[in-house]
């Protein structure tokens, strides 16, 4: 019959039923902004005042205040714990426990937002986004600088974040962003829209982005494809079911079908008590039990996904269809279709058409038979001819002529009808009339009322009255005394197999075809009111004040559907129900009258569907009236003191709070029923207990939701016979444990100390290596200067001796020359190396070169290298601006030792060219490092602290007043330096230079692997200053894979490429620090993006921060 209204209801979907919390019916109001599912099935509620509460279906804990101490407005929920922040610190809180500090950001950071996703906690400040893995305790940092590049606002606020596969997606005030490495990239489809919420469907690999104009769906398999917008206002919440996305907005709730792609706005019942009050949908929660919890600005509502099996027509729609009248009876007929009797007439409705009024006037009852429609009205018994569409009044005896007909029924030939307790029959074929009056009614029940008439196939009649059941059989009427206790009869029907079912005010019962063996039918609960019966080939359906029950034909309760599974308590109307059982079994539908309209059900779909199962929840455990655990934090294994009073608050979801429970303490014990949702146990004996709780009413064993809590009552010490022995034994064990613990502690301390010593030793070794390498230049400089002074002194002595032998000869030019030489050599001895007056100095270059070669002799011999000097210059006296020749050649020779291999030769050629002394150095080692640009002498603040590394060779030569030329060949390196020559009177051949021969060292040909390692080292020396240079870029430059590079490098040097690169950078940085450069400049020059990170790496490698290292070096 519901198709009467359903076919006329094309403009909207079936209204939905939203169940309020029981506490709201008590006058309480709870506005929640967040809902979370507890591990035990309960609901964590965070209200608009940031109070945290727990709901178990019966109780809302606590009754006042919050389960948590003050934690601020922002809370993140993960695994039954709540996370909050204060400044740069993040805390975790459990109900009834103190909060604990989990991690903190760098000092100065101020957290703006906190949330959770998967097994991560995320926070954000003004410049970074941080994630904390709860499992591994690892913290990852992502820069937010990329967010500011895509917009012009001074601050981008992060509203939400979700872990999507292995990346993070941010919802911000300026669009959505996807993590890429340690940064974020903008999601183009989100544009610059304000994004409040995001949701990731792992099953469908789809991302939902909530904006101010609705929700956008992005398919990760086709991210460029723009999906439909769902809703048209500010999105506040998301939820997902197997077939739908639920989107909560500022202006209502929208549902997107995953099967059809249709978006619909959820409508609610016209009844305020079961409507979705409030437009703002703050939170949505799928409880994984077939229900959706909805938090609005007007409270919390529950919607059962199973309610889709119950299609509804609102009372408002029915009133518009049936002229503002109320229904009296509904029926289905294979020829007439759907018939509805109301207080204003009877309507016929065929599928696809509009209701047709057949008769105007109040109709109390009707029946269809033999092509006629018989109407019981206030004007008497009327006959409606279906073919002619004419209504005629049936002439009756005087006792019925002016009376209102109450009930009417029809068998094959006889029409039964009643009025004010009188019963009569009319043969519709021959017109024979018979009245039974009302003398057949038991006198003690007068005045009586006939409430139902049911003719049987055997020609009998079952009469329902306001005090029991009568049967007409064999020309006699009998009263069934056993039916008296069930009160007024509401409905009677015959089940398959011949058994009769009777619904009465105080229960339901059956009797056999002989009207005997009255048997009560078990109801879903005692003291409920049955309303209507429907019989199908599958079984019996009975509506009641608790919902809809399905029975087998033998009266076994098989299924029950009620609140909150899609039906409303006390909604069904008496006698108003129908079924089209004349259709095939798969097409049978049920229609029931409700206070709120009509409810239509497809029998087969409802029976095969799985209704939500109830889940029993332990919501609070108390000892001596003091709570110790709440919600999902209740775990097995509690140890309770002997003699304590235990109290358990127990709820059940999603069933209503009136469902009874039963418990037992151990397997094998009897089940004990209890009410109120609180179980108190006292004076339990010591031992282990297994508390089991389940609903006391269930249809099948599979429907019983059994919840178990294991605990132990501790055995007191005074109950044992071995108390003293146990005391000493425990003391001994404690002492042993303390000794063992202390020994383990000492061992742990020693291990930690040893590790620290090893780390410090390694750091000092690194410092020493760098300082020794740096000080080698100073040692060689002093050595060269000592050799030079010694050579000059010997030459001066020889000149003075010769001069003294010739002084007796007057005007001896040779003596005069020797005298000049002595004066020159003395000038060399007393030359001021730090002369910066601008006056040019003269020096004998060959003497300086010989001194340097002599100083490096031992190193060249150990390295297996030889030095060949060819001097063709007649005059080796040069002019320089600043004396640093010894340091310059020390730097060159140190570089040669690093680049050349055993058996190779360094060739030094000295010649004159255009008044310049030219020195050419040629070797066949690794390429010379890339030189830095020449710095003008006037731009150097302190020449004595200038960096004299090989990279600054052009500047060093320029400072001395010379020139440098570099020639790049494939197989050799050639450097040419030149200085101006001082014109002196030259006597004799050129001085002889020192040559270092090492004939004992055989020549060495590089292996392929050595040549490759040298090329890698050269590549590092050329590119280490680039922050982008690393394993990947090096592999590309060498045309090998990263894995191959790492493997070959590790095999050759027994260290990874990354470690070698970091050590090279840090040693270069150390050299620059010793040269006096700024720390920040050094960090960037050595390939570090962040000076702070550089300082951290430097301290880890050398044991000192860069500033402390410079301070110590300066002090020394």
Tell me what you see in this structure:
The chain has 1116 residues and is an alpha+beta fold. Among the domains are: 623-719, Sandwich (Immunoglobulin-like); 841-932 and 950-983, 2-Layer Sandwich (Heat Shock Protein 90), CATH 3.30.565.10; 1017-1114, Homeodomain-like (Arc Repressor Mutant, subunit A). The protein is built from 19 helices and 72 strands. A five-stranded mixed β-sheet has the order 59-65-64-61-62, with no helix packed on it. The longest helix is centred in the C-terminal third of the chain and has 84 residues, at 723-806. The radius of gyration is 51 Å and the shape is elongated. It starts with a helix and ends with a helix.
Outline:
The protein has 1116 residues and is α+β, with helices and mostly antiparallel strands. It contains 19 helices and 72 strands.
With strands numbered from the N-terminus, the spatial order across the biggest sheet is 59-65-64-61-62
Using the alpha-carbon principal axes, give the shape. Answer: elongated
Q: Please give the alpha-carbon distance between the first and last residues.
A: 103 Å
Please mark out the parts with pLDDT under 50 across 5 or more consecutive residues, or reply none.
1-12, 998-1003
Q: Largest sheet at a glance?
A: 5 strands, mixed
Helix share, percent: 10-25%
Q: CATH superfamily assignment of the domain at 841-932 and 950-983?
A: Histidine kinase-like ATPase, C-terminal domain
Task: Please state the second-level CATH architecture of the domain at 841-932 and 950-983.
Answer: 2-Layer Sandwich
User: What is the CATH first-level class name of the domain at 841-932 and 950-983?
Assistant: Alpha Beta
Q: What does the radius of gyration come to?
A: 51 Å
CATH topology of the domain at 841-932 and 950-983: Heat Shock Protein 90
If helices are DSSP runs of H or I spanning 4 or more residues, what is the number of helices? 19
Mean pLDDT: 82
């Amino acid at each position: 019959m519901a198709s009467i209204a359903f076919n006329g209801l094309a403009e909207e979907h079936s209204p939905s039923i939203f169940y309020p919390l029981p506490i709201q019916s008590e006058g309480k109001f709870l506005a929640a902004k967040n809902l979370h599912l507890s591990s035990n099935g309960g609901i964590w509620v965070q209200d608009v005042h940031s109070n945290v509460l727990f709901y178990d279906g019966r109780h809302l804990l606590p009754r006042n205040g919050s389960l948590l101490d003050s934690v601020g407005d922002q809370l993140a929920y993960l695994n039954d714990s709540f996370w909050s922040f204060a400044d740069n610190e993040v805390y975790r809180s459990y109900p009834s426990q103190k909060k604990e500090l989990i991690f903190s950001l760098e000092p100065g950071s101020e957290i703006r937002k906190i949330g959770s996703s998967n097994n991560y906690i995320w926070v954000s400040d003004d410049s970074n986004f941080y994630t904390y893995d709860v499992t591994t305790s690892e913290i990852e940092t992502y820069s937010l600088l990329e967010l500011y590049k895509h917009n012009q606002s001074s601050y981008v606020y992060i509203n939400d974040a979700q872990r999507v596969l292995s990346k993070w997606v941010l919802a911000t005030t300026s669009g959505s962003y996807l993590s890429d490495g340690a940064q974020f990239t903008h999601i183009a489809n989100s544009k610059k829209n304000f994004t409040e919420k995001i949701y990731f469907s792992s099953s469908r690999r789809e991302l939902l982005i909530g904006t101010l104009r609705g929700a956008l769906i992005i398919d990760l398999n086709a991210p460029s494809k723009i999906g439909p917008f769902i809703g048209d206002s500010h999105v506040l919440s998301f939820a997902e079911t197997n077939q739908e996305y639920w989107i909560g907005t500022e202006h209502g709730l929208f549902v997107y079908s995953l099967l059809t792609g249709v978006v619909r706005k959820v409508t609610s019942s016209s009844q305020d008590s079961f409507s979705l009050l409030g437009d703002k949908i703050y939170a949505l929660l799928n409880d994984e039990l077939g229900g959706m919890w909805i938090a609005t600005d007007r409270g919390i509502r529950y919607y059962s996904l199973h309610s889709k099996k119950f299609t509804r027509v609102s009372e408002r729609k029915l009133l518009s269809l049936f002229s503002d009248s109320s229904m009296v009876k509904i029926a289905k007929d294979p020829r007439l279709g759907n018939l509805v009797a109301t207080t204003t007439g009877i309507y016929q409705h065929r599928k696809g058409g509009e209701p047709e009024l057949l008769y105007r006037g109040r109709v109390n009852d009707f029946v269809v038979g033999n092509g006629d429609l018989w109407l019981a009205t206030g004007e008497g018994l009327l006959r409606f001819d279906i073919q002619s569409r004419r209504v005629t009044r049936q002439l009756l005896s005087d006792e019925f002529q002016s009376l209102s007909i109450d009930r009417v029924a029809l068998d094959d030939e006889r029409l039964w009808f009643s009025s004010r307790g009188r019963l009569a029959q009319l043969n519709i074929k021959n017109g024979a009339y018979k009245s039974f009056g009302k003398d057949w009614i038991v006198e003690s029940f007068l005045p009586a009322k006939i409430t139902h008439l049911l003719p049987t196939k055997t020609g009998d009649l079952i009469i329902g009255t306001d005090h029991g059941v009568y049967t007409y059989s064999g020309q006699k009427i009998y009263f069934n005394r056993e039916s008296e206790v069930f009160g007024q009869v509401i409905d009677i029907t015959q089940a398959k197999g011949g058994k009769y079912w009777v619904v009465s005010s105080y229960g339901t019962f059956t009797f056999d075809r002989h009207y005997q063996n009255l048997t009560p039918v078990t109801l879903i609960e005692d003291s409920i009111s049955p309303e209507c019966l429907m019989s199908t080939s599958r079984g019996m359906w009975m509506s009641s004040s608790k919902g809809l029950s399905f029975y087998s034909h033998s009266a076994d309760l098989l299924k029950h559907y009620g609140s909150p599974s899609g039906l409303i308590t006390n909604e069904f109307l008496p006698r108003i129900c129908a079924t089209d059982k004349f259709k095939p079994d798969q097409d049978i539908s049920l229609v029931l009258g409700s206070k709120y309209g009509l409810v239509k059900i497809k029998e087969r779909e409802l029976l095969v569907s799985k209704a939500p199962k109830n889940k029993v929840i332990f919501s609070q455990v108390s000892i001596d009236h003091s709570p110790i655990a709440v919600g999902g934090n209740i775990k097995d294994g509690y140890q309770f003191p002997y003699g304590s009073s235990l109290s358990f608050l127990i709820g059940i979801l999603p069933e209503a709070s009136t469902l009874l429970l039963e418990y037992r303490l151990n397997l094998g014990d009897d089940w004990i029923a209890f009410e109120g949702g609180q179980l108190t146990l006292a004076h339990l004996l010591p031992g282990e207990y297994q508390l089991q709780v389940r609903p006391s009413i269930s249809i099948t064993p599979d429907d019983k939701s059994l919840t178990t809590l294991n605990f132990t009552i501790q055995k007191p010490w005074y109950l044992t016979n071995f108390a003293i022995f146990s005391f000493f034994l425990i003391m001994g064990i404690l002492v042993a444990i303390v000794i063992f613990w202390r020994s383990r502690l000492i061992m742990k301390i020693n291990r930690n100390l040893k590790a620290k010593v090893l780390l410090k030793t390694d750091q000092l070794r690194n410092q020493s290596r760098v300082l020794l390498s740096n000080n080698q230049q100073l040692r060689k400089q002093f050595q060269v200067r000592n050799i030079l002074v010694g050579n000059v002194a010997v030459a001066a002595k020889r000149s003075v001796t010769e001069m003294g032998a010739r002084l007796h000869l007057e005007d001896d030019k040779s003596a005069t020359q020797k005298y000049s030489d002595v004066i020159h050599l003395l000038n060399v001895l007393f030359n001021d190396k730090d002369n910066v007056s601008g006056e040019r100095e003269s020096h004998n270059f060959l003497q300086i070169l010989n001194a340097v070669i002599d100083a490096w002799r031992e190193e060249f011999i150990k390295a297996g290298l030889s030095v060949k000097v060819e001097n063709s210059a007649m005059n080796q006296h040069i002019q320089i601006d600043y004396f640093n020749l010894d340091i310059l050649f020390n730097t060159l020779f140190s570089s040669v030792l690093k680049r050349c291999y055993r058996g190779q030769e360094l060739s030094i050629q000295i010649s004159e060219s255009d008044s310049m002394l030219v020195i050419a150095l040629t070797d066949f080692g690794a390429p010379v490092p890339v030189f830095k640009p020449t710095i003008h002498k006037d731009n150097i603040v302190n020449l004595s602290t200038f960096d004299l590394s090989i990279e600054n060779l052009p500047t060093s030569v320029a400072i001395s007043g010379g020139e440098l030329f570099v020639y790049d060949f494939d197989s050799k390196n050639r450097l040419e330096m030149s200085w101006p020559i001082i014109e002196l009177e030259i006597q004799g051949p050129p001085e002889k230079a020192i040559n270092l021969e090492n004939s004992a060292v055989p020549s060495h040909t590089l292996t392929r692997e050595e040549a490759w390692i040298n090329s890698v080292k050269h590549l590092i020396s050329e590119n280490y200053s680039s922050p982008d240079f690393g394993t990947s870029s090096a592999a590309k430059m060498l045309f090998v894979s990263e894995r191959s590079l790492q493997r070959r490098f590790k095999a050759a040097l027994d260290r990874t490429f990354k470690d070698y690169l970091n050590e090279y950078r840090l040693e270069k940085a150390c050299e620059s620090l010793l040269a006096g450069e700024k720390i920040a400049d050094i960090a960037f020059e050595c390939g570090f993006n962040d000076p702070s990170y550089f300082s951290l790496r430097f301290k880890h490698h050398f044991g000192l921060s860069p500033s402390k290292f410079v301070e110590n070096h300066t002090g020394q």
